[in-house]
Write a structure and sequence with these properties.
With 195 residues, the chain is an alpha/beta fold. The protein has one domain (5-184): Trna Endonuclease, Chain: A, domain 1 (3-Layer(aba) Sandwich), CATH 3.40.1350. The protein has helices spanning 5-16, 71-79, 95-98, 100-114, 132-136, 139-144, 155-165, 174-184, and strands at residues 20-27, 30-31, 34-35, 40-47, 57-63, 69-70, 84-85, 88-89, 120-125, 128-129, 149-154. Strands 1-4-5-9-11 form a five-stranded mixed β-sheet, with helices on both faces. The longest helix is centred in the middle third of the chain and has 15 residues, at 100-114. The radius of gyration is 17 Å and the shape is globular.
């Protein structure tokens, strides 16, 4: 069972698009037969049996921060590799994107489990501010996850898309089932924009 609601919603979203998923897959780098003591995990790993190329495999990393993601600020922090926030080196928050060693470990784990070394990496957030193209094309990320696409997706996008895809077949999770019931009662999901 997934404990994080954002992970659950994201997994439902990818399953509704035909992906078989696994969650909380542990991995860590191995350098010269010496493994790092700390694991990271892939929140969602999905494989689509009918897709070809990069879209056949997806990797999802969920950040359920209530304040959301401020793209400019986060990229600024990541450019300053030594930045410490709350007693921790900030780059470790996005280690698989920001560090070659961790990016390689991620790619190795995905290859081990799916047979594929290219994929789409999704950063899934509650919300974001700024130009998502800056995140998706950030040179540091692109240099670490070579030949992989990077996408940024918000809870609003996931819920809107998921809502449209729902039918009357019982959904994967209680949350998606709740969305089905809301839809069956002609309910709507409406986001209001704050300016």
């Amino acid at each position: 069972m997934i404990n994080d609601i954002l992970e659950q919603v994201a997994e439902d979203y990818f399953r509704s698009k035909g992906y078989f998923t696994q969650h909380n897959v542990k991995y860590r780098p191995s350098i010269k037969n010496k493994k790092y003591s700390v694991h990271s995990d892939i929140d969602i790993l999905g494989i689509h049996p009918l897709q070809k190329g990069k879209s056949r495999v997806i990797v999802g990393s969920c950040k359920s921060w209530q304040v959301g993601l401020n793209i400019e600020s986060e990229l600024g922090f990541l450019e300053n590799r030594g930045k410490i926030i709350s007693g921790r080196e900030y780059w470790k928050t996005f280690r698989e994107l920001a560090d070659k060693t961790w990016a390689k470990a991620l790619k190795d784990k995905v290859k081990e489990l799916t047979g594929q070394n290219t994929f789409i990496f999704y950063l899934i957030v509650t919300r974001y501010e700024g130009d998502k193209n800056l995140w998706e094309n950030f040179p540091l990320f692109k240099g670490n996850l070579i030949n992989c696409d990077i996408r940024l997706i918000s809870l609003e996008t996931i819920l809107s898309d998921l809502y449209e895809l729902l039918d009357t077949t019982p959904a994967h999770s209680e949350l998606s089932r709740l969305l089905q019931l809301i839809k069956a009662d002609n309910g709507k999901i409406i986001y209001e924009r704050k300016n």
